[in-house]
Write a structure and sequence with these properties.
Layout lengths: L2 H10 L8 H19 L6 H8 L3 H13 L4 E6 L6 E6 L2 H12 L3
Antiparallel strand pairs: 1-2
Helix pairs in contact: 1-2, 2-4
């Protein structure tokens, strides 16, 4: 099972009480962008994500909040690139990749 297929199933098959279908589609799309950034070794920060997507910081964080709620992303606070302020850095929990590997190993 691919990362994208796993993410799509997790999001589309398990709607949260307070989200719309449009919000779920945004999550699937953003996870695809985040995965491409991850593969390219780009930092998953709000600044980098907004630069990559063209979305506003608020728009990005609104979608990321759902992904955090679903435990599809982890969030840590780090120093910003100038070393003075704080920034949020996101990462994929290793459990996601382990679950994908388990599905790939299981007999069909």
């Amino acid at each position: 099972m691919s990362f994208t297929a796993f993410v799509m199933r997790e999001i589309m098959d398990n709607p949260l009480e307070d989200e719309t279908a449009s919000a779920r589609l945004k999550q699937v799309g953003l996870m695809s962008v985040l995965y491409c950034m991850h593969v390219d070794n780009q930092a998953l920060t709000l600044a980098a994500i907004t630069a990559e997507t063209g979305l506003t910081r608020g728009g990005v964080y609104e979608t990321i909040a759902y992904l955090l709620k679903r435990s599809l992303l982890d969030e840590t606070e780090v120093r910003n690139s100038l070393g003075r302020g704080k920034a949020r850095r996101f990462s994929f929990p290793e459990e996601i990749f382990e679950r994908i590997r388990q599905v790939e190993r299981s007999p069909r």
